[in-house]
Write a structure and sequence with these properties.
- The structure holds 2 protein chains of 2 kinds.
- By secondary structure, chain A is of the alpha+beta class.
- Chain A has 2 domains: 99 residues, no CATH class; 95 residues, no CATH class.
- Chain A contains 7 helices and 5 strands; from the N terminus they run ββαβββαααααα.
- Chain A starts with a strand and ends in a 7-residue tail after the last helix.
- By secondary structure, chain B is of the alpha+beta class.
- Chain B has a domain of 100 residues: Lipocalin (Beta Barrel), CATH 2.40.128.
- Chain B is 34% helix and 24% strand.
- In chain B, strands 1-2-3-4-5-7-8-9 form an 8-stranded antiparallel β-barrel.
- Chain B is globular.
- The N and C termini of chain B lie far apart (41 Å).
- Classes of the chains: A alpha+beta, B alpha+beta.
């Protein structure tokens, strides 16, 4: 089961990329561990981000993989693997000064891992279509919480990220796959960013309460 | 409906905010109260109509989405120290969670807020009664007063006194004071609700302990001493 953040249209952009050999833990044909990234800077950023995210959400991925064919990012529940497309990552992180936008997306996917660990993704299998939206908004909230925590160490421009999340909104409110309107994603991320609590469980609880305003059960 | 209701809430906040501004003698702070309540919440019925520029203006106090950093937005970041202004619906959810999970002490204050400030007639998407915008923006030394309503005798009287007072230190959403042999630490939210749980009291009390409600007239509770009052005022 994938819980993904992939541009449907954008997926077409990555088809021409050449694949790298698969490694243990990164089983896809075009996947490789972030530890194998050639660029020292990018490898350092992603390895340290993985460590930070695992510390914040209090869990470990089995693997954190780059994928040269994927245009997007997703968390593979069954493999417990975080996967991010190379081209997608670079597009989001550029122009220079936007690395935290890409990290916020990783945090969003890590939030899905957190949800899986704590049984929150089970809500996805229920029939109510808007459960998907609230799972996504809750992940936005958790991502914001992580970035807020990260902002204590780094200079982070929250408005760049809320603007990005706004752009990830969709208008397909009558479809099961609806992830939330742009403003809903903006607000959910921002609220998480502003919420300071002592642990990830409390953050999640506050996020569930906050997201419940989105009328997921209507 | 939302527009009208929101306008009424905003008007109330402006009036109350100005009142608080008068109490604390800062028109600049009162102005900040107005700015800080412009950002819509997830429960706003018209949220989907907001453009990115409108959201940046209302939530980041900026018409440009990429020109301001968190380090240059002390007001926005500072408001996080006390947490957001939770709606009655959110407090109800937290209170429900607290009932299921006794270890979730944060929900204890929500339970008190729901019972006292989110009664019949208060919509779930409204902030609790008694909300005033801007409490999280205050910094400095204020006077606190607290006490328990029940008059005790004997040894219990020395522990559960009817009146304590002293200095409370506020710093952008955080409150700290020492009283009764304990140091109390908690938060003040965007809607000026003070929230202190047992986890914020050092040494940690043996019984459930909380201060919750509007900072100018909050409720004190301790499992041993019972209910009481807590309030802040300008020095």
């Amino acid at each position: 089961m994938r819980c993904c953040w992939t541009y449907v249209a954008g997926a077409l952009l990555g088809l021409g990329a050449m694949g790298a050999p698969a490694h243990a833990g990164c089983t896809g044909a075009y996947q490789y561990p972030v530890a194998d990234i050639e660029s020292d800077i990018m490898r350092s950023i992603l390895v340290s981000t993985q460590s930070d995210i695992q510390e914040f959400f209090n869990f470990r991925f089995d693997a954190f993989c780059m994928d040269s064919e994927e245009y997007g990012a997703y968390y593979d529940v069954q493999e417990n693997t975080l996967v991010v497309g190379v081209e997608f990552f670079l597009d989001v992180a550029n122009p220079p000064g936007n690395i935290n936008r890409a990290i916020a997306i990783l945090a969003h996917e890590a939030a899905h891992a957190f949800q899986a660990k704590h049984g929150l993704l089970n809500m996805l299998v229920e029939t109510n279509p808007h459960r998907v939206k609230c799972i996504e908004l809750h992940a936005d909230f958790l991502s914001g919480g992580y970035m807020g925590w990260r902002s204590e160490k780094y200079d982070i421009d929250v408005s760049k990220m809320t603007e990005m999340f706004y752009g990830f909104g969709d208008q397909y409110t009558d479809q099961d796959t609806h992830h939330g309107l742009g403003p809903e994603r903006f607000i959910s991320f921002r609220q998480g960013f502003l919420t300071k609590v002592d642990d990830e469980i409390t953050l999640s609880s506050v996020g569930i309460a906050y997201v419940s305003q989105a009328k997921c059960d209507d | 409906m939302f527009h009208k209701q929101n306008a009424m809430i905003r008007a109330g906040f402006v009036v109350l905010g100005l009142a608080v501004g008068a109490v604390f003698g800062s028109s600049a702070q009162a102005q900040q109260f107005k700015m800080n309540i412009g950002c819509p919440t997830l429960g706003s019925e018209d949220l989907g109509k907001y453009t990115i520029d409108q959201l940046n203006e209302a939530c980041h106090n900026s018409s440009s989405g990429s020109s301001s950093s968190s380090s240059s937005q002390p007001v926005q970041v500072a408001s996080a120290e006390g947490g957001a202004a939770l709606s009655c619906g959110q407090h109800k959810a937290l209170a429900a969670f607290a009932r299921m999970n006794p270890g979730f002490v944060e929900g204890e204050t929500s339970q008190a807020i729901v019972s006292k400030y989110c009664g019949d007639g208060v919509p779930d998407n409204s902030v609790p009664q008694g909300s005033q915008a801007g409490g999280d923006l205050l910094s400095g030394v204020f006077r606190f007063e607290r006490g328990y309503h029940t008059q005790y005798s004997g040894a219990k009287r020395s522990i559960c006194q009817p009146y304590y007072s002293g200095d409370a230190y506020l710093e952008r959403g955080k409150i700290t004071f020492t009283s009764g042999g304990h140091t109390w630490r908690g938060t003040i939210s965007q809607n000026s609700f003070v929230s202190i749980t047992r986890d914020g009291v050092t040494p940690r009390p043996k019984n459930p302990t909380s201060i919750s409600g509007p900072m100018l007239e909050a409720e004190l509770y301790n499992g041993y001493c019972g209910y009481g009052f807590f309030r802040l005022s300008a020095k």
